[in-house]
Amino acid sequence: VQLDESGGGSVQSGETLNLSCATSRDIFRIYDLGWYRQLPGKQRRELVAVSTIEGRTNYAASVRGRATISRDNTKNAVHLQMNSLKPEDTAVYYCNAYRFIQPAGETYWGKGTLVAVSS
What we know:
Blueprint: E1 4-6, E2 9-12, E3 17-22, H1 25-30, E4 32-38, E5 44-50, E6 57-59, E7 67-72, E8 77-82, E9 91-98, E10 107-109, E11 113-118
Parallel strand pairs: 2-11
Antiparallel strand pairs: 1-3, 3-8, 4-5, 4-9, 5-6, 7-8, 9-10, 9-11
């Protein structure tokens, strides 16, 4: 299973981040997709997820109001846009696919993309 992330890199504080995660049609159709991030020296934590069935979203408090996740049906991809970036947003961002539909529980990860926010 491939989750191909793109869009990371170095950005300035206050700028907008755009990340994309492309996958196969089967994964896109069946799995909930989302983004996690791992701050330096910290555990990986969920940022946002979007369900496959109804497109419901769930944002972490740390990014609520600054981030938007969207599913792209034409590209079998999920996009994350996050604005007003801060140095504390510096992290490795991971795309995640989680099977919520029975049999539930199967999880896949992208390789991660580093986002470095400078002040």
